[in-house]
User: What shape does this take?
Amino acid sequence: MSVPYIILLVAEAVLGLFMVVLILLHAPKGEGMGGIGAGATMFSAKRGAEGGLDRLTWIVVLLFMAVCMVLGFGIVK
Assistant: This one.
């Protein structure tokens, strides 16, 4: 195993854990069964921190996918 391969493996693990944490930080989008009778807030606009959290989550997901593809296709060995 080469040094770049090990670095990418560590980056993949760190990005994976960071992605899980970011996803768990998101607020629930709907009210579940409780939103049937009342107006659900599911379609409200995103504001401030939630929009930034969404953007950061997408960046981490895309980086994770890129590292997975590099490792999966054997570009770095």
Q: What stands out?
A: The chain has one domain: 1-24+48-77. Residues 48-72 form the longest helix (25 residues).
